[in-house]
Design a protein that fits this description.
about 210 residues
Amino acid sequence: MNFMEMWDQMGLMAQAVVVVLAIQSVWSIGVMVERYITYRAARIQSREFAPAVAEALGRGNLRAALDFTEQFSKSHLARVLSAGLNEFQAHENSKRIPGEIIEASKRALQRATALGIEDFKRGLGGLATIGSTAPFVGLFGTTIGIINAFAGMSQAEDTGLAAVAGGISEALVATAFGLFVAVPAVWMYNYFTSKIESFVVEMDNSSS
């Protein structure tokens, strides 16, 4: 029996469960792909940005360092350092004492780091929700399938396999689909979370 035959034999409620799981699956895959591309771009550009900006700052060339932050716009380090350097440059020729300028730059770095973390976390909340709820949606479909199996048994007045086969197939499809949606979502959520933790460390180190 193929999936289309199973689909044709499912009741409306079981089909609705599968549709919900399919929507969750498509959405989670979209988030996974988008986040992976974003994190990969941030990692690649940051590896090129860090030594370049360090050299520019080592020479005291603030303008060159700011140019690098614009050039590597997808780098999380570039976004953070851009905020601090722009704040520092804005007050560089002011009459404020150096300590106040440093504190203002420090606050700008902290704000940029917080915004960077929130940007990296975008979509992960939904991914975690899908990972935790998809098995229960599948379990709901399983319950519906079991109910249909017993209903079929009652209507047929028979306890043979044929009387419950349709309902059992609904239950198994819903269970399998729920796990199929949930497991990758949980895996990728944990993977992305570990990546964010390393990005936070990198941003803090660069700010220092």
